[in-house]
Sequence to fold (224 residues):
Amino acid sequence: EVQLVESGGVVVQPGGSLRLSCAASGFTFDGYTMHWVRQSPGKGLEWVSLISWDAGITYYADFVQGRFTISRDNSKNSLYLQMTSLRTEDAALYYCAKGLGFAIDDWGQGTLVTVSS
Amino acid sequence: EIVLTQSPDFLSVAPNEKVVVTCRASQSIGSSLHWYQQKPDQAPKLLIKFASQSISGVPSRFGGSGSETDFTLTINSLKAEDAATYYCHQSIILPLTFGGGTKVEIK
Fold:
């Protein structure tokens, strides 16, 4: 059974930084593209970033370019999202998700990021 | 960026009735369109992949159709546990995008 467990979400001030982590199990982690997707409270789903199986390819939504960095450690079955220069509009539940090619099949339960002074 | 427009935004449907949700893409995406179900306080769950391909463990009352720019999610014989928000998602052109969601309420 695929399991994706996110962590690292906290309350942070505008302009602050944060690193989210996702621990993966139940599948061959280094064989899959991985994604971060976010959802603001009461709102829809918003794709954030993806990373290929070998970290050779990364893509970002325009709204996070230059502020967020996606990475992975296949030896630890872990996915990360380094977030800097956080804005109030970045406040959301951040989901780690397993890729189906560039599509998404399995999702974690999310970790909540609050940006507030 | 590909914009996915879902309609309607909200549906209130009696049990055992049929539900049809549409998703229109702003440009052709072939069959790279997927449907998710999200229940309150839960993560999304993949229902249909590549427009019409079924997913193991998903009830057969859920079906998908369409190609290029027009897609449909059909729920036959709606059950109480189908109350949720449904999202479409395209995976062929970056940035990846989602539809705005369709909330289905059980009458």
